[in-house]
Amino acid sequence: MSHTSRFRTAASCALLIAPLAVSVTACDDEHPLSAQPYDAAGAIAVNADDGGKIDPDKPLEISAKGDDRITDVTATDATGRYVRGELTADGSSWHSTSPLAAGAHYSVRVSTEDEDGAPGRRIVGFDTKASDKRLRISLGPDSGTYGVGQPVTAELSHPVTDREDRATVERALKVDSKPRVDGGWHWVNDKTLHFRPRDYWPAKAQVEVRSTLDGIKIGGLYGGSAKPVKMQIGDRLEAVTDAAAHQMTVYRNGEVIRTIPVTTGKPGYDTRNGVKTILGKESFVRMTSASIGSADFYDLGVYWATRVTWSGEYVHAAPWSVGSQGAANVSHGCTGMSTENAKWFFDTVRVGDIVKVVNSGGADMTPFDNGFGDWNVDWAKWRKGSAVVPAGTRDGSGPADAARLRPRI
What we know:
Strand order of the largest sheet: 22-21-20-28-23
Helix content: 10-25%
CATH topology of the largest domain: L,D-transpeptidase catalytic domain-like
Radius of gyration: 32 Å
Number of strands: 28
Mean pLDDT: 86
Shape: elongated
CATH architecture of the largest domain: Beta Barrel
């Protein structure tokens, strides 16, 4: 029995026994709304139906045959991403309106009905061709344990300038934290994004970063895969240096754990004010005047050096200036302290911890071109650097790439 004749038999039965209420349910098993959908393989045509790989630059197209009509189409790739589409008013055809991913497998479920209203169904699987035109992405930092000030970074292999393309990239970069935070991405430039919470990460938070950009079309490119990142956030550790008082106060979760006499930059070499994030730790660094073009010659081996800018600002041991520590600023921009205190600081802090300088005669720490100064940008301005906020609140500008320069003392 064909699906058409099956429908007609059910309809006739319902008409014959309609006066007998108790008998209507006896025919429900043959009602078209409860019947198993017929195989709609012969009722539709799909431009991916031959089993071959299709060009992701072309839309997926499905059309009905004969007197059948399409009632619904659901298309997803292997990761669960849906394909948007448009069905004609008469149900004669459907086509995708969002780009297909490259190198992806799709499952398409098509629902139909015939001229008498009987339901049909067809599931089609197909693959799209891979593409070597990839927008590759590198997520940072490496998985590990970090301080509460550590931003998440995303480096792209090609510049992305179009706002809608930027929004596509941004939406595909997922940051999940426990506990949850109010955070957002900021376009530093056409190839770099940073993510940070409104405030510092909560102590002991767990953060997972991943990309769902693989295969997604962005301009003339397709997104590449990205290695996910898992960050464990440590205690909230902050070192606040008062350059005028020549003193550093170190806090753990809001409690003072050490007060250290220091020396900071002398006039002409003033230490930068503002919030800096620890970039790395080096037990020994050679520092020379050539690194900053100083007229005051020096060439020193420095121990227990904790880096806070790419241009060479450190917190480090300075045994030669112990007499000035706590009393005067005599360095070339770094924060110097006794060897004992520098070793303690080196052993206590981790990458991503906060170092804040106040009351210095120096310039303010810049946000992006000399390390991670992200926390010097207020939240309203940070959000303007996102491509997914309303257009009227977006400034569209981005600072230059960070430059890795040589150290100074």
